# Entry
Amino acid sequence: TDYLSQVLEAPETAVEKALRPLSFADFSGQGKTKERLEVMVGAASKRGEALNHILLHGPPGLGKTTLAHILAHEMGASLRLTSGPVIDKAGDLAGLLTGLQEGDLLFIDEIHRIPKAVEEYLYSAMEDFRIDIMIDQGPNARSVRLSIPRFTLVGATTRTGLLTAPLRSRFTLQTRLDYYDRATLEKIVRRSCKLLNVAITDDGAAEIAGRARGTPRIANNLINFARDFAEQRADGEITGSVASSALELLEIDRNGLDEMDKRILRLMAQNYKGGPVGLGTVAVAVGEEEHTLEEVHEPYLIQEGYLARTQQGRVLTPKAWATIGIKPESASGQ
Ligand code: ADP
# Structure
């Protein structure tokens, strides 16, 4: 696997944990989402009620888990973290839910990957705070009703379109996280360096922010590597040229594209005349999981205008052709 999917799909590291903002005041960017959440928290606290259910959507590494922590912190409640693929039986869900206290938050990452059979139990849990579960089998089978404390479900997913309509409709707020602009990322980079006690110049921060694909998790990871690089190959300070050399070593270019991104673009150009081509075909050809292409590489390539999604499949844009330096008319296709 490549650098990006390693960063974006790996569990959180201790350093990342230390860098996580703990309050809204400390969380930069995502203005609309932040304001919507602040309003809900303010109102729920004032009424002394649990927060309504919230769905956060957007690409990985933008702060969905961080916001769940902040919500719990601001509500003075506890947070339980789990993820869709982990809850594979109704019993697992029942166990999680009945273990909650009044007002607690349950964060389900990749909520679109909850098995269908389990998802249905979530409906009554979210709506009526109860769950009817079948115990035993055959003639002894019977349904037992469990009541659940009033909790808040915070769901996270990369795209709302991946959720079924009945599940989606049970969230009071659905709000989208977008890639961060460069100025906000620079601010995040400077904050992280301060917390880590890393010396960085303005040029260094700009260089890292410019190549971090609008993603704080990537920015934090690049800081870590640039710090090591600065200690080994320079005098310890992350300057513009130190950052630039460090990122070259990681094969992340000026536009934040890594080797896998470029392999995808080149493959589509050389073998498929720029498409349309299905994601599964691309995944097999570049030797990467379809899931990783869809969650890690494709959203950024689309956002930055290298790829377009059509009914027939993915197609390269003129910007992509220019970036890989191949002329569309010279591509042979298969
Ligand atoms: P997601 O759940 O969307 O994949 P996370 O909440 O795990 O993303 O965020 C990844 C990392 O990026 C966190 O460890 C956190 O330190 C950092 N981060 C995310 N959003 C921000 C932000 N707005 N300001 C500062 N750091 C952030």
